Amino acid sequence: QVQLVESGGGLVQAGGSLRLSCAASGRTFSTFSNYGMGWFRQAPGKEREFVAAISWSNTSTLYGDSVKGRFTISRDNAKNTVYLQMNSLKPEDTAVYYCAAKRALFITATWVKTPTSYDYWGQGTQVTVSS
Known about the structure:
The chain contains no helices and 11 strands. By secondary structure, the protein is mostly beta strands.
């Protein structure tokens, strides 16, 4: 079984910053660097929304339109961890944030934005941005 555990969520004022982490582990989890990683978010009553994705090599990233220029995804393969640095937060960023993993050498827009493309999911961490 593969486990993805998110952390770093919380309450922040608009304009503030948070850094989310997602640690991967598990007996059947092969090399972390074999996986493309993504972040999604879901607000109450809304569909799960793509936020960002990163390739195994750290050389390719993709972002959702609503977070471009404010959020940055990165990963540390030695620590089996992917990060989401969130700056200039807005109340509309309030949601549960999930990380996800897909065994893939490359990330492309054809699949990274589709939740069903991913093999594993974390349990989510709540981010609340107050106005």
